[in-house]
Amino acid sequence: MNIEITKLLKWYHQQSYSFPWRNHYSPYKTWISEIMLQQSQVKVVAPYYIRWMKQFPSLRDLLKSNIDDLLFLWQGLGYYNRVKNIFKTAHIIQEEYQGVFPKDYNQLIALKGIGDYTASAILTIGFNIKAIPIDGNIKRVMSRLYELDLLNIKTDKLKKYASTYISDIEPRHSVQALMDLGREICTPKSPKCNLCPLSKQCLSYGNQTTSIYPMRFKSKAIPRYTVVVGLIYKNNKFLISKRLNNKFLGGLWELPGGKIKKNESEITCLKREIKEELDITINIKEKIGSINHQYSHFKVHLILYKCIYKAGIPKPLASNQIEWIMYKQINEFAFPRGTHKLFELL
């Protein structure tokens, strides 16, 4: 074991950062935690992971669930294709591998929702088999250690650099040490170089270029949409619809409505959308308020109106299903975070 690995592991064990997915290791638990951590912060994921493991502590328990159970548990975490892929992959593992996680990289990467990073993480963290998962934290650490231009370097080359710091004996702890180092010390802004166990080997630290590395990608402008939805009441209940499975946020429930067209008023938009989606007419009573929400690739301004059902038989013309519910029932259905923000206006 070289001196860099020794220093890194010593620092790792001294810090001993505590996360629920590090209490007990298994390929299943690593898989769930890593999928949750994609596009989500550690502090956000922790309570979701704890609730998940309480309800589905093993793959066998997960296989007893249905997709609606998983969507309900996942609501608010976003990127819902992640949980849909978990559901599909669980059944593939059961059918093709008799419910046992494969230890082979090529078999793992062939599973739905598992790419190079997740397959490598399952091997290294779940099985303690040496592999090299390259996440954003490890990328940043390598970029500064070697002054690498991440805009023009392939993952395989990054893995070669990172392998210098991954122990053959303790690959699990070595990889988690690099992740912790990137998250806590080698941060995007104002890195704490004086606390870094690898500062003597770091070219960026020695050359005072930590503000330059890693070089930044140019971010694209995110489109913004205005959407009007209705809280349509009939006999103390309001109408909700379940999004089509093959659409964005598929399988989640929402308030009916849609995007405003060019030169269209909010009222005209809402009446048109309700007729198109449900084949009913409504009386619009009052504007309740609005919220802003951001998804991965667009922003949305959601406007909420209180409405009264007028005429027609509601039909799910643009959804899987519709339901009349009371406000006290909202916790029984899986809604996206944007809809929950609207409920907070009531």
Folded structure, characterized:
This protein is of the alpha+beta class and 346 residues long. It is 41% helix and 16% strand. Strands 1, 2, 3, 4, 5, 6 and 7 form a seven-stranded mixed beta sheet that branches. The longest helix is centred in the N-terminal third of the chain and has 17 residues, at 81-97. It is elongated. The relative contact order is 0.11. The mean pLDDT is 95.
Task: Give a concise summary.
This protein has helices at 3-15, 27-37, 42-55, 59-62, 67-74, 81-97, 105-109, 116-126, 136-146, 155-163, 171-185, 203-207, 266-278, 337-343, and strands at residues 224-234, 237-242, 253-254, 257-259, 281-294, 299-311, 321-325.
Strand content: 15-25%
CATH superfamily membership of the largest domain: Hypothetical protein, domain 2
H-E string: HHHHHHHHHHHHEEEEHEEEH
Quickly give the structural class: alpha+beta
Total of helices: 14
Largest sheet features: 7 strands, mixed
Number of strands: 7
Distance between the termini: 60 Å
The CATH topology of the largest domain turns out to be Endonuclease III, domain 1
List keywords for this structure.
single chain; 346 residues; alpha+beta; Endonuclease III, domain 1; Nucleoside Triphosphate Pyrophosphohydrolase; 2 domains; 7-stranded mixed β-sheet; 14 helices; 16% strand; elongated
